[in-house]
Design a protein that fits this description.
Layout (H helix, E strand, L loop, with lengths): L1 H6 L7 H21 L6 H32 L3 H8 L3 H12 L5 H24 L6 H33 L1
Helix pairs in contact: 2-5, 3-6, 5-6, 6-7
């Protein structure tokens, strides 16, 4: 579709940078914020916890598989990181929205959150060739991760209580 738009003269090659920035910095964050505007029922909370467990499990399993394949195929640090770390923020939101619908973006955001923790710990370690993890940095990131989720919960908790009272 992009090829046809450029060939018909509607857009130039250089316009793709502007459109990418609009999508990445404006549209996707709006879609993510909109995804969190749901009734937080017990089913939603259970779904989020399942998504969290599945995301962590997927990351760990992929890390193990990639460690073995990296040694067998003699992959360097950049090759390992490029295979392991997807552009999930830019890819997951549009794909999930199109295939599963807007209500499932919330669960895709859980995967993106988990991958960010791995990105700023594991990926940083392998790309910078650090001999060990920076545990202070890891704990800081973990605290920030928890704070963000507590803030989301606290912002939505009054609405959850109100919706529980109106449904009973």
């Amino acid at each position: 579709m992009g090829f046809l738009i450029v060939k018909t003269g509607l857009l130039k090659d250089d316009d793709s940078k502007v459109l990418s920035k609009i999508v990445l910095y404006l549209i996707i964050p709006c879609v993510i914020i909109n995804a969190f505007q749901v009734d937080y029922t017990m089913d939603t909370v259970k779904g989020l916890l399942i998504a969290l467990a599945a995301s962590v499990m997927i990351q760990i399993i992929l890390l193990i598989i990639l460690s073995v394949l990296g040694k067998l195929l003699h992959l360097n640090e950049v090759e390992i990181a490029s295979v392991y770390y997807s552009n999930s923020g830019n890819l997951i939101v549009p794909i999930v929205t199109f295939i599963l619908g807007q209500e499932w973006v919330l669960y895709g955001c859980v995967f993106m959150s988990v991958q960010l923790v791995f990105l700023w710990t594991h990926c940083k370690k392998i790309i910078s060739r650090e001999p060990s993890y920076d545990w202070k940095n890891f704990l800081t990131l973990l605290c920030q991760f928890i704070q963000i989720h507590i803030a989301i919960f606290l912002i939505n908790f009054p609405f959850w209580i109100i919706s529980k009272r109106t449904h009973t």
